């Protein structure tokens, strides 16, 4: 396989690249992206939709966008000299570097980041809604669909290892593209599904899966980034600078117009806007920041071990050499070092909570409510306050498009109606309901809090609509069912 890659790269170096030449005399820059991997949208779907790259290039080049489900075909085409700039996840980035580092004409560099999550929340493992599997250990002896060498696959291997299972023998990993694996899960051909954004969220939103493992439980950063062929960057530095400046433009747009950005990506991909917003919205699972942070480079070094466990055709990568932030530093400007040091999500939930009458100030507790017929989302100071808003809205005949809450332990934003809720009467009235992405997480909380108990979503909504003392299981001070 390596000989094949090398031969293809030599052909590319001999002038067989399709990115050179066009009918009108302009050269074509070829960009490989993954439209449905929605935390790459600032270097792919959203960037394409906004036309910022074409504007930055000023008509000097033609842009050809090539869409793929995973990073593997992008890497293959970069080796062949048929894609100039590409975006992909951390594990595919390492494979990209490994495949190209020994071929001077195809060698690539990591030049910017799209979306990241410092805890690993962009990857997850789901099971069918009716499955009796409640923890990752419950998948022992079962088939799990994953795209070999992907970030989702890497998360699965790490999580199995932490659960005391042997990834090579205790679980049968079936190598499938995300849409194929999704169908296999629904048909019962596999019993688990380990994938990257936005597939787990999509299946859960459509009631076709239930989250059993949140990648945030690993506490290991995961991210997607942009790579360029080094030879192309040297030959066309103006194109790369235009791309990175356009990526910054798209990132700023996403921060300033998160709902519009989600709807644009949804229209382009066919994904529900509610799912896109889960990851890319205010305080979403993904933080969008173009800077190349040291925590993310450390994550790449950490990931190498698991690529070898997976069995990928992989040789060690010099991450320090692979990462080159000189281009994005130039595009970003004088505040680059400050931007690199910051891990604050630039798209924050702010405003005043209508149910509890308090300012939204803590991102670890803040949520949002998206009602049908509204183009804005209503902020909630805590999950309990969000439940009150939902109860009041539904009591008034309003339909809920989506409601988002952060996991009380990991901070991962998830759908309120798909979360596992815990009632803890020992805490303040406005914080007595705690949501978790998985039942495993909820049970861990209950073990540490003797008065806490798991409650159903409908029960939580009903209790939240009552007076706080009544909801905590104490006598009502006064009758009422109105939202506070």
TrEMBL record:
InterPro entries: Solute-binding_3/MltF_N, SsuA/THI5. Residues 464-484 are annotated as: Disordered. Keywords: Signal. Residues 470-484 have a biased composition (Low complexity). It comes from the Bacteria. Residues 1-22 form the signal peptide. Residues 40-257 form the Solute-binding protein family 3/N-terminal domain. The keyword Signal applies. Belongs to the bacterial solute-binding protein SsuA/TauA family. This is NitT/TauT family transport system substrate-binding protein. It comes from Microbispora rosea.
């Amino acid at each position: 396989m390596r000989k094949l890659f090398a031969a293809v790269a030599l052909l590319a170096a001999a002038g067989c690249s399709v990115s050179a030449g066009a009918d009108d005399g302009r050269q074509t820059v070829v960009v490989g992206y993954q439209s449905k991997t929605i935390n790459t949208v600032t270097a792919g779907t959203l960037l394409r939709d906004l036309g910022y790259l074409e504007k930055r290039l000023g008509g000097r080049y033609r842009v050809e966008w090539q869409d793929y489900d995973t990073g593997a075909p992008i890497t293959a085409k970069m080796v062949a000299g048929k894609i100039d700039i590409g975006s992909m996840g951390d594990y595919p980035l390492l494979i990209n570097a490994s495949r190209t580092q020994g071929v001077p004409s195809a060698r690539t560099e990591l030049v910017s980041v799209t979306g990241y999550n410092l805890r690993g929340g962009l990857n997850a493992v789901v099971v069918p809604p009716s499955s009796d599997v409640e923890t990752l250990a419950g998948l022992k002896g079962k088939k799990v669909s994953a795209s070999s060498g992907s970030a989702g696959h890497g998360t699965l291997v790490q999580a199995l290892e932490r659960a005391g299972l042997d990834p090579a023998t205790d679980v049968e990993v079936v190598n499938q593209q995300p849409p194929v694996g999704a169908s296999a899960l629904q048909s019962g051909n596999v019993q688990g599904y380990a994938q990257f954004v936005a597939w787990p969220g999509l299946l859960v939103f459509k009631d076709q899966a239930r989250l059993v493992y949140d990648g945030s439980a690993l506490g290991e950063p995961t991210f997607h980034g942009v790579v360029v062929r080094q030879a192309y960057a040297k030959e066309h530095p103006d194109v790369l600078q235009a791309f990175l400046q356009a990526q910054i433009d798209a990132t700023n747009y996403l921060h300033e117009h998160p709902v519009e950005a989600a709807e644009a990506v949804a229209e382009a991909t066919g994904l529900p806007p509610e799912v896109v917003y889960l990851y890319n919205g205010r305080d979403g699972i993904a933080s969008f920041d173009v800077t190349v942070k040291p925590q993310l480079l450390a994550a790449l070094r950490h990931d190498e071990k698991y690529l070898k466990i997976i069995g990928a055709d992989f040789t060690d990568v010099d991450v320090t050499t692979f990462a080159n932030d000189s281009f994005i530093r130039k595009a970003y400007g004088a505040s680059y070092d400050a931007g690199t040091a910051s891990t604050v999500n630039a798209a924050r939930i702010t405003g005043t909570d209508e149910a509890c009458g308090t300012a939204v100030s803590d991102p670890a507790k803040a949520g949002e409510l998206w009602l049908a017929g509204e183009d804005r989302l209503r902020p909630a100071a805590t999950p309990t306050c969000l439940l009150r808003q939902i109860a009041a809205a539904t009591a008034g005949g309003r339909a809920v498009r989506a409601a988002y809450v952060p996991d009380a332990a990991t901070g991962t934003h998830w759908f309120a109606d798909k979360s596992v809720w815990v009632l803890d009467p020992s805490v303040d009235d406005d914080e007595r309901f705690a949501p978790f992405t998985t039942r495993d997480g909820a049970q861990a909380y209950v073990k540490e809090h003797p008065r806490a108990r798991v409650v159903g979503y409908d029960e939580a909504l009903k209790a939240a609509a009552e007076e706080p003392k009544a909801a905590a299981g104490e006598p009502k001070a006064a009758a009422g069912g109105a939202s506070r």
